[in-house]
Structures are given as C-alpha cells and as structure tokens.
Amino acid sequence: MHNLGGRSPFRAYILSNIMNNTNNTTQSITKLFDIKYPIICGGMIWVSGHKLATACAHAGIMGLIGAGSMKPELLKQHLEKIPAGTNVGINIPLLYPDSQQQIELALKYGIRIFFTSAGSPKKYTSWLKEQGCTVAHVTSSPKLAAKCQAAGVDAIVAEGVEAGGHNGRDEITTMALIPQVVDAVDIPVIAAGGIGDGRGIAAAFALGASGVQMGTRFAASVESSAHPNFKQEIVKTQSDSTYLALKTVTPVRLIKNQFATEIIALEQQGATSDQLAEKLGKGRARLGMLEGDITKGELEIGQISGLIKELSPVEQIVSNLVSEYQSAVATLPKVL
C-alpha cells in the first residue's frame, strides 16, 4: 500500500475504507440498514418526526421516527407523510402501553427497521424477526448487551451516560462502555452518547464500534421537529450546561434551565421519588421541546451540545461529519 501524502499505511487504509463502506466492520451496519454511511439519527421524543427521518434517508444515513412521544394516531400521521420507498426506521420504547399498537402500525406502513429501547428485547424481537424485520436494541451496559444478543437482535446500540434524554442507571461513559460491549457480544455494536462530529465517529470506530447513533447533533437540524426556541437553547449550551437529573425516578439529561434548577434543588434537599415525580408532572418534555417553553419545560439534550454552534440542514450535517471524520483520521499520529 502506498503512503498517501505522508500518511501512514494504516491511516490511509482507514481513511479510504471506513466511510466508503468497504471495511468489514462498518459494512455490517451499512448492509444491515441499507445505508451509505454507518450513521443512525436517533429516534428522539418531540424531535424525530417524518421530516427529519426522510431528510436522513436522502443524506445516506438511517433516520428513525421517535415514537416515544407519539400516540398511535399521531404516529400514523407521520408514517403517512413518509414518501413511498423511503428507507427509514422507528424507535419504540417498550415501557409504554401503546408499544404493540405502534409496532403494528409501523409494520402496516412498511417499516422493517426497528430500534427498541426501555424494556426487555425478548418482548418483540422474535416476532419482528418473523415479520422479516431488522431489530436493534438500546442498552447501557455490557451485561444487558449480552442479554440483547441472546434475545436475537441484529445489532446493539450501546449508549453512554453523556447522551441526552433518558439514561441507564449504571452511568457508564461511552469511552468505557463501547469496548466492553464489543468484547461482550458477537453482533455489530453502534456507539451512542457524546458523539457530535467526525472526531467522535473516528473515536467510536477505534473503540470497536461498527457504527454510530447521534441524537443531539440532529436535534439541532433544520428538519428536526423541535421548537425553534429549544433549538436555539441547544446552540447556546456550554460544556457544563447539562445535568443528569431525576436519578431516583428515571435518569434524564437536561439543559439546566429554571425547571432543571428547581429539580436539582429538590434533589439536594433529599426529596423522595414521589415528590420529584410530582414536580415533573405530565407533559413537561412536550412543553419544552415541542412547544418551546424554555423556562418551565424539560429540555432533554446531550453533553455534546456544547460543541454545536449553529443549526444546519441534515444534508450539510452529514457532509460535515464525513469530511470531519476524514480529517480526524488523516491527522492521527503515525506511532505512539
């Protein structure tokens, strides 16, 4: 192999292969989901609607409908607006009572790629596989990843505690989580949590991941269904602007607005789970993320938000990710 422009052979190989889908590791993800790049846009509540999923498909990545915030009728409306033949998937949190109806609706409208989360992968995986579907499950520990593999899923999304929204109770960071999950299973691992640019993608591949799932970066896209007020708050965040709150209820990473500050104060005062749940109430995430109340709403976002400085169309975001990745790999040191 020739040394290209002073690059080491290893770096030249990685640069030419991984994002062009000729590397066996990432090829497993691009083939599995029939996409150009091994990148998944996570299915975020109040953010990942039909516009975002469709834009992702056109840009060569997998876009997921975020069904977690959708009643069946609303989900139906989004599914109906996806152009025929568009390659999109869906994320379905299994803890909600409508999950089976959501799955049946998605199947009816031709969805065959399912990312499940927040529940046991045993619940629907076998049935979905019988329907000819591809199934990935989101997990936050190597132990749970092994259970996902035993349940028959095709891939695992290993999500570190840096991620926005609901998190695992183990609080394992992405850097520590990914290699442990890779060692624990024999199926493709998709890295998630704290990945916001091409450098993060390169790091995930170095840790053994076959692909990446990104949420926060695409929440701040033109096509996301997040309220413009929420999008502007994402752009304004700094490295210390988020907080992992409500650990005794359901851990969730939030922007530290007035609501989050009040929750933090209650936690420091020793509030019970019931008291925290009462403060949270109903519809808090919708209030902030969809309706744009940045004071009283729950603004779920990841730590990597501090890296995002502007809103961009999905096509531009993906183009930037590829070029950033190439630059990151090209500048790796030749030797330790």
What does this structure look like?
The protein is of the alpha/beta class. It has 2 domains: 9-225, Aldolase class I (TIM Barrel), CATH 3.20.20.70; 228-304, no CATH class. It has 15 helices and 11 strands. The strands form 2 sheets. Strands 1-2-3-4-5-6-8-9 form an 8-stranded parallel beta barrel, surrounded by 6 helices. Helix 6 (125-130) links the parallel strand 4 and strand 5. The longest helix has 17 residues, at 314-330. The chain is globular, with a radius of gyration of 19 Å. Residues 1-18 have low confidence and may be disordered.
In short:
The chain is an alpha/beta fold and 336 residues long.
Task: Provide keyphrases for this structure.
three-stranded antiparallel sheet, 336 residues, alpha/beta, TIM Barrel, 2 domains
Percent of residues in helices comes to: 40-55%
Give the neighbour order of strands across the main sheet: 1-2-3-4-5-6-8-9
Low-confidence stretches: 1-18
**Overall pLDDT, averaged?**
90
CATH architecture of the largest domain: Alpha-Beta Barrel
User: What is the name of the CATH superfamily of the largest domain?
Assistant: Aldolase class I
Number of domains: 2
Query: How many helical elements?
Result: 15
Structural class: alpha/beta
Gyration radius, in Å: 19 Å
Which CATH class of the largest domain is shown?
Alpha Beta
Query: What share of the residues does DSSP label as strand, in percent?
Result: 5-15%
